Amino acid sequence: MHNPFSHPDSRRPFESAPQTEVGDELAFHLEQRVRDYVSRGMDPSTARATALERFGNVTSVQRECAEMLEDERRADARRDWFEDLRQDLQFGLRSAARAKLFTALAVLTLALGIGANAAVFGVVKSVLLDALPYREPQRLVRVFARFRDGSSERGALSAGAANDVGIRQRSFSSFAVFQTTAGDRIYKGDGGTGIVHAAWVQPAFLSTLGVVPALGRDFHEDDARGDTAFAAIITHDAWQRLFGGNPHIVGASILINGIARQVIGVLPRDFVSPVSNADVYFALSLPALLRDPVSSRGSHYLSFVGRMKPGVSVEQAHDDVDAISTALSREYPRDDGPFQLTTTSLRDAMVGDTRTPLLVLMASAGLVLLITCANLAGALLSRTISRRKEFAVRVALGAGRGRLVRQLLTESTLLALTGGLVGILLALLGLSALRTLALHALPSYAHLTLDSGTLVYTMLLALCTGIAFGVFPALSVGRANMQSTLRDETRGTSESRRSRRLRGALVAGQIALCLSLLAGAGLLARSLWAMTSTPLGFNPNGLLTVDVQPPLNQLHTSEDMASYYARLEDQLRAVPGVTAIASASELPSGSMNSNGLAIEGAPPPPSDQMSFITYVSVSDDYFRTLGIPLRSGRTFGPEDRPDAPSSIVISSAMEQRYWPHGGALGARIRLGPDANAPWKIIVGVVGDVRNDPLRADPEPITYASRRQEPTMGVSFIFRARGNPLALAAPIKRAATAFDADLATHNVATMRSLLSNGLAGRRLPVVLMTAFGALALVLASVGVYAMFAAMAAAREREFSVRIALGSSRQAIAGLVLRQGAVWMAVGLAGGIVGVVMVGSLLRNLLFGVRALDPVTLGATAMMLLACATLALLGPVRRATRVDATTVLR
Amino acid sequence: MFNNDSGLLQGTLELLVLKTLSWGPMHGYGIANWIEGATNDVLRIEEGSLYPALYRMTRRGWIKGTWGVTENNRRAKYYRLTAEGKRQFQEQTSGWERFAAAVTLAVGSAHAPSWAS
């Protein structure tokens, strides 16, 4: 941008350069003096010399004065610039007040467009741009196991693999191994028995993240020596919740799972765990985990976080770990063959699946803003056209074209800033709505607030928008031939072909953008519909789930556990309202325990093709309670005694994959890392269950009997008569009556569990649908305004046509044809947009193709209907033109 | 300062210019001539310092120059007082009068100080 203060042309008309002007002035002085001397009788050459001598140093005086004059002129220009601005602002305010409807619509449209963008940017910034709450977070990475059978992209590590990476790596200055998921533990305190989430982490965990406890101290290496140290670090939240913020908590003893542990530290309030949220952290000893020869390499349940040495890039760390992983696959082909270790930045690991939906949101908000711009450009263009005469008069009275353009830009910037401010208010409302909507869908470190960065972004956006949509009408003013305008406007002709085409293009653009957005929203909505309506394989209605955790010290053998749970189940079955009860080691979800599969008689697959199958142990009534049908064979019963050969029930998908030609019943398989474990016999096949509602096709599942494979923690599933939540309190009472030390938690209906699993998918659907609706309204208003203005501009032409004998139908056809052409152009352009949106959304789609004809057709019809509705007004107005009044 | 060859105090020159222009618009040459005439040629304007003073006063907003035509049909730059210039003129005039009276009083005093006796 040029600096208006130093522009060489800022001189007023007829002003000469400072040097010349001062020169002229001094020349006049000297000339007068010479003339004076001559008149007193001096001869001219002496007179000139005397005059010069009397004056002194002409050159230096001239230079000094010219400098001051230049200064003065520059100050003048500055004063003029501000004076012009003040005038423009005043004029803008006055003309805005005159056109109230236009102003209100423009500000509201802008506020919606900008508000949507500010809100989305607030989310995107907090998730993707804000620093993670760790020291130098860009140096933190996580190592994952990517399983070659495709069962897991970011799987957990085994203790052995994690240990070897730690020993052989050269990229990290520090690292820590920790448990991927926090386990439920029983906490016993003054307030009774409760559940805390506990996670085991290596002592270097916090120091690797760069987090220092707010109270007390960090773990020492000694804290991991299992037999002597029982140190615990608790979160700020647990400190407040369990101990009422007791200031003397450090050093206090707490009872967890019957073991006394000493609190050595409290984490800062804003601490965010890179994995699941634990309440309490214990020190993990990797050597202790390595002692078990089978589970140390075969069980995957650990995470690895590393702080890269200064100057090491994520790529270098990735290559380093990749080489280690390749070596491990060679050394331990059976255990480490099935996966490859990958390294990702901690942010990518934490952002996870949120990135695509966020980018979709960002794109949708951007599209809405583009529609807003097109809309406003059209509206301002119409207004400029209706003000043409005013401009022509002003030009005739001496206003420069540049001044007019500048005034239009000032007016649109004024509008934009007002719109931006209102938009920020809308964004605040939007964010508070998002905070509840996005609770389960965004990473836990994201604070959805409008901070200064977002405000700056919003105001910049408003300014750019103002300038962008101010440019169109300003250009049209700059181009117009004022003299002919003045003549034409008074005489009355139709608007020019060029401005009509510009308006048409703006309408077409809005329709194209709107179609892309609506189609995207339609695709996502259809996917969500497919996810929720595709049969799950079981009946989730009327089911209540409760997780229980028995006291550790009473149950020493699996027989103890089996009988404890059998008695508990009997007690709970007697609760009035319960029609069926079942228990399982895990509830159906997207992330269930899985085990490597080996089939007797089948050649062992190459280690890198080992399959991992979801594995859950269930009670006899599980299939009946959930409504999973039996396809062949039997389900579990009393014959599955702990000492009998292990029975396995598999799902149909599993049967189809491994025994497509039959013969599954009676086949023997082995699950898990232990190559010497006894074979298990398949006794039945049941219907498929879509345990991950986000996946279209059901995964193969293997079921074991709880009689033979009991687990410590158990989820109970109740089928209720009536509202399942009404059972929550009686069941809790019955459980406490059975054993006061039994902890129950996570009471929820199966429906709400499934719905939480879908939260991440519902967010983009809801928001994109909202944006689509917004776009539809904006585009309809835009189409209406545009064609209303077009029809108005051609009123005179229509009246001439009517006067010459044209029928009103023909006039309506004229307007409709004009509208239809531009709508067709818009729809054609929209197809291109739909293809782009479709490819962006590919990963989020479920059971629907990116170019789904139903969605596209419905979207186009809806858009056409709205646009046609918007066209009706202008058409009616055009047909009612009264030839005599207009022509007169 | 009171020698014919010496220059004027800057403030004095500005006051004299203001006084000149209080009669009406005038060009630089006319201002110099008027001051010389009005002071009976006692104060001879150093022309080299008159023009910078004019531009300085323009810059302060006391006077304003516009091009005009003399009786002899010559282009010349005429200066006139602005509203601010008029205010300055009144203020500086009364200031000068107080200053001159004080100096006159002191210089004309007949009372000898006590240490002179």
Description:
The complex is a heterodimer of chains A (888) and B (117). With 888 residues, chain A is an alpha+beta fold. Helix content of chain A is 53%, strand content 16%. Chain A has a six-stranded mixed barrel. Chain A has a six-stranded mixed beta barrel with strand order 15-16-21-18-20-19. In chain A, strands 1, 2, 3, 11 and 12 form a five-stranded antiparallel beta sheet that branches. In chain A, helix 15 packs antiparallel against helix 16 and helix 26 packs antiparallel against helix 27 (853-879). Chain B contains four helices and three strands, in the order H-E-H-H-E-E-H. Chain B has 117 residues and is of the alpha+beta class. The A-B interface holds A 21-22, 24-26, 28-29, 31-33, 54-57, 60-61, 64-65, 68-69, 71-72, 75 and B 27-29, 32, 46-49, 51-52, 54-56, 58-59, 74-77.
Give keywords.
heterodimer; A: 888 residues; alpha+beta; 4 domains; six-stranded mixed barrel; six-stranded mixed beta barrel; B: 117 residues; Arc Repressor Mutant, subunit A; three-stranded antiparallel sheet; 4 helices; elongated; disordered N terminus
Structure at a glance:
The complex is a heterodimer of chains A (888) and B (117). Chain A is an alpha+beta fold and 888 residues long.
Number of distinct beta strands of chain A = 23
Determine the strand fraction of chain B and express it as a percent band.
Answer: 5-15%
- Rg of chain B, please? 17 Å
Helix content of chain B: 40-55%
Shape of chain A: elongated
Most extensive chain-chain interface? A-B, 23 and 19 residues
Number of domains of chain A: 4
Say how many strands of chain B there are. Answer: 3
Q: Strand arrangement, largest sheet of chain A?
A: 4-5-10-7-9-8
Amount of beta strand of chain A = 15-25%
CATH class of chain B: Mainly Alpha
End-to-end separation of chain A in angstroms reads: 48 Å
What is the averaged pLDDT score of chain A? 82
The CATH architecture category of chain B equals Orthogonal Bundle
How widely separated are the two ends of chain B?
31 Å
Estimated structural class of chain B: alpha+beta
Tally of DSSP helical segments of chain A? 28
